[in-house]
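pinging the channel bc i need a second pair of eyes. not urgent but kinda urgent?? the chain im working w is below, pasted from the shared doc
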Amino acid sequence: MAAKSISLMRALRAATWLLLAVCVGQAAHADIRVQDDRGITQVWPVPPQRIVSLLPSFSETVCALGECQRLVGVDRYSTFPKQLQALPQVGGGLDPNLEAVVALKPDVVLMSTATKAAQRLEALGIQVVALNTQQHADVQRLLAVMARLLGLESQGTDAQPTGAVSQRYWQQVQAGVKAAASLPARPIKVYFEVSSGPYAASASSFIGETLTLLGVGNVVPATMGPFPKINPELVVRADPDVIMLSESRLAQLQQRPGWSQLRAMRHQQVCVFTNAQADMMVRPGPRLAEAAQSMAQCLKGVLK
């Protein structure tokens, strides 16, 4: 009888330890819950390992957190870091190839709230996280959301702790602001051209916010929306002190009526960025801080 009791106690003890081990294991692998900017909460039993990103800033954020290897497909504009160029491209952020996306069997698809493809993908059984990034604060929020999605929120990754990435981002922004501290005391007006149209960055865009942080004004008012298509005559009337644009757009300036007489053109106060730099500047991702530094350096160079 005593032997049976001892065996029973041992069995109960073993069962208890097994139950504790299971509970600890479940706690260590708690569900991943992420609420996107549509207010929809998605749940994964384990952190997603196969990710398709349909926006360059999202792709760059995943990589900034040290998890580039989880990306299995990207949009046609996700070209940084260079290793992303070897991944399958599944169209653009607004016009993704849904068949190509589904074929990659993703655990999650990252996309902008501006696209209407989310519901179609969800109808096909694909989980979607749709986000909207417009300002510097959104970049920090994006880092936090991605860290949660990747299962890094509580401990960070060994290579790139979330807090360290966020801290480095703001340190770089402040470095850009400090670099611009020696600009002339007089008011400086800037025109930033984003793309053909021409489309410009207004004061309400994240680029406009960067210019404000650097202590300069924007000739395109916030009331026109973040990236309005403008009439070139608006720039002629505003007569900016500095023009910022990519090298691929420089040749067009002289062809526009009245632009050769602009103050910025006459005094050669034009910031010409490489196409790679321009791509960095128009993407609301973790490299915006580096963009701020580049803008500050150019402003100091042309406003001697």
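so Confidence is low (pLDDT under 50) at residues 1-9, 11-28, 155-160. and Residues 2-28 form the longest helix (27 residues). — does that match what u expected or am i reading it wrong
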